[in-house]
Amino acid sequence: MSTAPARDQVQALPRSWWWGFIPFAAMSAVHVAARAVEADWLAAPTKLTLMPLLAAAALWGLRGRWQNGPAILLLAALFFSWIGDGAATFLPMLPELPVMLGAFGLAHLCYIRLLWKYASVQGFPRWALAFPLWWAAMLVVLWPALGSLAPAVALYGVVLGGTAAAAARCSPLIAAGGVLFLASDTILAFRIFMPESMPDITSALVMLTYCAGQGMIVAGFLRTFRGAANRA
Known about the structure:
Layout: H1 22-36, H2 40-62, H3 68-85, H4 87-90, H5 96-118, H6 130-146, H7 150-168, H8 172-193, H9 202-231
Helix pairs in contact: 1-2, 1-9, 2-3, 2-9, 3-5, 5-7, 6-7, 6-8, 7-8, 8-9
Protein name: Lysoplasmalogenase
Membrane topology: Multi-pass membrane protein
Subcellular location: Membrane
């Protein structure tokens, strides 16, 4: 039997449910602003607080509705995202980019499973066909600059697009979050592999779309999940 909620189970929740997201939203604003003005002394430490604060918001939203499967997947996705955010800090003896790709790849696998099993409310919409086209276009454009990382980047693109595709089967809030997460990593890919094509302000844009995307996926999932639990 499917554990995915029906579309009519996505409902509004009490205002107090959103309080857990206030620290995450505030720190995201500080971090993005620091990126925008190139205040690295502030951007670096605030980045490492983002996923723990979002995890705290997730725990707040799960209170009274704790179920091991979805909770573990959600917190694992945020944990691996945190490792990806702090790859250079947590594992300085390893090359940063491969660690980032690996950690975020695991985060996306958790999200795919989470959204597919516990948050889907519909089949694939037609507009989701844009995701395989995005993957092919990104490889065509970036391939000459990828070098030995080409296979890893191609594989990461599959799971990144997979999260966006899984999110497309969910509520509009989750779907929008999936698109923003994909946009963030797309901009980041160009900053890493074709930096001459990206102005400095795109550093802030990477983090703006990343924070918004992650936050919307988590908020949308909790809204759907709690709505389904309330109707059970």
